[in-house]
Design a protein that fits this description.
The chain is mainly α. It is 59% helix and 8% strand. The chain folds into two domains: 58-107, no CATH class; 116-341, Vanadium-containing Chloroperoxidase, domain 1. The protein has a three-stranded antiparallel beta sheet, covered by helices on one side. A two-stranded antiparallel sheet has the order 1-2.
């Protein structure tokens, strides 16, 4: 009896296979038959692809970048505008739309033009968009906001005890002689920094040095955003300085000096950055020594200038000594803050 059952099962399977092979029963019969037949057709076409030639990749565009260094055309650098995998429309089920290729972003001209006036006109036209883009990246980044809120909280914690103690000290002592105070005050003036950034921009254009030119542009952007933000915070806080002047918090001299120091450090490394950070510290002490600011004004000014410049110079969240600032929370203690995290490898 068992042998007869096995024989009938085998005979039935062979009969169905024969009907499918002769076309009397189509593989497309059933709920998923159309998809199976379509998949077979696509597989056959792809197996025959080498004979028909290589398939064309959709939405893969290469825009050559003009290089004027005398290299042969075959070795010129190319910039990939957009890239996506090739999609066979026949390989997708009905009712499913093909994945649209990414829209090609218009290339932004980089580097100075040969003519100074043309370079200035181009950059002035692009300036509003660049400044808005850098501003959104700076203050739209949650890590930056957490860091600035933390710096603001620290600044408030310094009032009034620490600020008053430091003010009392400088009422009777001075760290610098008057000439040095004037010198460091001039070095920390935002007008001095804008003059340096514009001069760096001009040198880069005249020498046709793309790096110098780009550093000058980014310095102008960082200083502009830092300056406007500082003025808005001064008007909102409306605090007094030790010498009785209004609009003390935060320190504009310190925020601007820190922004320029951060730009130069990111562009040229610690050999330039460390002396510039040292100058920032001297400017901060001069502000306290001259009675122009409280210690809390200086602390938040430095934090603001660093965050803005670090974001303008880089495409990711700010770093300190190669480590990233990330939000930190300790549910056990109910504490929160900012942590420094550095990756030691993959």
């Amino acid at each position: 009896m068992n042998a007869r059952i096995r024989f009938r099962i085998v005979a039935g399977v062979m009969a169905i296979s024969a009907l499918v092979s002769t076309g009397m029963v189509k593989a497309g019969d059933g709920p998923s038959g159309d998809w199976v037949a379509r998949a077979r057709e696509v597989a056959q076409r792809r197996l025959a692809a080498p004979a028909a030639g290589p398939a064309v990749l959709e939405s893969f565009q290469l825009n050559p970048v003009s290089v004027s260094d005398g290299r042969p055309p075959a070795r010129r650098v190319v910039e990939v505008e957009s890239f996506s995998l090739a999609v066979d429309a026949a390989s997708q089920p009905e009712g499913v739309e093909s994945v649209a290729a990414p829209t090609t972003t218009p290339a932004i001209e980089r580097g100075p033009l040969p003519d100074l006036w043309q370079t200035i006109v181009r950059d002035v036209k692009e300036a509003p968009g660049v400044l808005w883009h850098d501003t959104k990246r700076t203050f739209g980044n949650p890590y930056n906001l957490i860091f600035l809120l933390g710096a603001g909280g620290a600044s408030l914690a310094l009032r009034p005890e620490v600020d008053d103690d430091i003010e009392d000290y400088y009422d009777e002592h001075h760290s610098f002689k008057e000439d040095w105070r004037d010198a460091f005050g001039a070095m920390g003036n935002p007008a001095t920094h804008f003059g340096f950034a514009c001069a760096w921009y001009l040198i880069g254009q005249q020498a046709q040095d793309a790096k110098t030119y780009e550093v000058g542009k980014r310095a102008i952007s960082a200083l502009s955003i830092t300056g406007v933000t500082t003025v808005m915070l001064k008007l909102a806080a409306c605090t007094d300085s030790p010498n009785g002047e209004e609009w003390a918090w935060p320190s504009g001299h310190v925020s601007s000096t820190m922004a320029l120091a951060t730009v130069l450090n990111d562009a040229y490394g610690p050999l330039v950055g460390i002396p510039m950070f040292g100058i920032t510290g001297l400017v901060a002490v001069e502000r306290l020594d001259s009675g122009e600011h409280h210690f809390s004004d200086v602390v938040f000014g430095a934090a603001l200038g660093w965050v803005v410049a670090e974001t303008v110079m880089k495409e990711h969240r700010p770093e300190i000594f190669g480590g990233e600032l990330v939000p930190y929370a300790d549910p056990a203690r109910g504490a929160a803050g900012v942590a420094w995290v550095k990756s030691l490898g993959h």
